[in-house]
Design goal:
The protein is α+β, with helices and mostly antiparallel strands. The chain has 14 helices and twelve strands. Strands 3, 4, 5, 6, 7, 8, 9, 10, 11 and 12 form a ten-stranded mixed sheet that branches. It has a two-stranded antiparallel sheet with strand order 1-2. A hairpin with a 6-residue loop joins strand 11 and strand 12. The longest helix is centred in the C-terminal third of the chain and has 25 residues, at 364-388. The radius of gyration is 24 Å and the shape is globular. It binds zinc ion. Zinc ion is lined by residues 140-141, 144, 159, 161, 362.
Amino acid sequence: METAGGKETVTVLRRLITYAEKVFHLSRVLASLGDKRLQPRIPTVAVVKSGLVLFWTRRPSLKALSLLPGARFWQNWLPEPLASADTRGRVHAGLQADQLRQAIQQVYQHLKRNKALPDVQGGGVAVVDGHESHASYLRHGFGCLQRTLHSDSGDRIQYYHRQVTLMLLPGTRPARPPVRLLLDHEPQRPGEDEVETALRLLARVLVRFPRAFDLLLADALYAPAPFFNFLLAHRKHALVVLKDERRDLYQDAAGLFDQLAPQPGGYRGRQCRWWDFPDLRSWPQVHGSVRVIRSLETYGVRRQADHREHPQTRDWIWVTTLPPKQVSTQRVVGFGHQRWDIENYGFNELANQWHSDHVFKHDPIAIECFLLVAFLAYNLFHAFFALNLKPALRQGKTQAFWARLMAAELHQKVAPHSLSP
Ligand SMILES: [Zn+2]
C-alpha cells in the first residue's frame, strides 16, 4: 500500500481502476453506453461506473454507496455528484444489455491478446449453469417466473428470477491464479426450461466468443440431446454429468461397468477406479457416438468428534464427446470435477460476497443489467488480482480482505497530495 506523508493510505480500489483504464481503456469502453432517458442530467457512463464501484466495494444496496465528497480521484474518474439511488436504479432499468455484453467482450479480447487466458491442454474450457437469483412471496412484477408451492396450510405462489451463466475456465500462468471470466448470462423466460435458456445464451456467446472455448461442462440437467447436438453442430465438445438411471445410455454403461475391471487412477489425493467406454451408440437422439466415464473415488475425512479418518466414496459418471485419443481418462475426470468451479468461484462468490443476488431494482431489465455490471466488475477485479497484484501481496489474504480495503478507501480521509491517480 502507498505511504503518503508518513501515513499509510489504502489505494487498492484506485489501483484497480488505474489498471482497468490502462489495460482495458475502461472509460473509453463505457463511453458508448446509453440508456432510455431523453435528457440525461448525469451521463450513463457515470452511473455504470458507480455500479462497478458498488460491486467492487461489495455494497449490499444502492443506498449504501456513498463517496467521499471532494476526493480528486473520484472527481476525475466519476463525475460528481453521484446520482441518487433512485436514479441509478432507473438508469440500469433503461440500459441496453447488449452494450454491457460488448464491454465484457472487449475486456475478454484484451486479456486474450495479452495471453492472460491460456488454454487447458490445448483447448479452451467453459462451464454453463443456471442460478436462481432470488425468490419472494410478496414482491413480483413483469418478468418474474412463478411456481406454486404446496403445503399443509395451502398453496402459495412464489416469484423468482433465474439466469443461465457461462463462465470461462482458462489455464494458469506460473505463480498466478487463473483468470476465470463471467462471459455472459441469459434470463430464463416464463414457461421455458433451463436448457432452452442455455441454448439461447450459447447461440449468442458463440457469435461473440467463437474461439473462447472448445469444451463446455454442465451438470446432469444438460444431458438432453438438443444440448449435445447444438454443441456438435458448432464443433464444440460437451462433458455432462450422467445421472438419469432411466436413460438407455446409463443402463448400457452400468452393464459394462459390471463386466469390465476398472483401471486404477488418482484425483487430488483420492484413490480412484476408472471405467472409460468410448464410442457408445446407445443414445440415438445424439448425432454421433458418445463416451461414458465413471470415477469411483475413495478418500478419508477426518471427523472432529474422534479425530479419526473416515472413508468416503464418491461415484461420478460423465458423458462426453471428447475423443479418447486426444483426451485421457485422467483429463476427463479432471474436467468433470471442474464443473463445480462455476458454483464455487462464480455463484457462491457473487451471491455471498458481491451481493449480486440482491434486487437493486425490481425490473427485469434492471436485474439483467445489474448482473452484467457485476460480471464486468468481477472480471476486472479478478484480472487485476491475478495479473497486476504482486504474488507476495496476494498471499494469505482472503477476498473479503480486499473487499474491506476497497470499501474503506471510499471513506478514507487522505491528504490531497496523495490522491493523484
Ligand atoms: Zn421478480
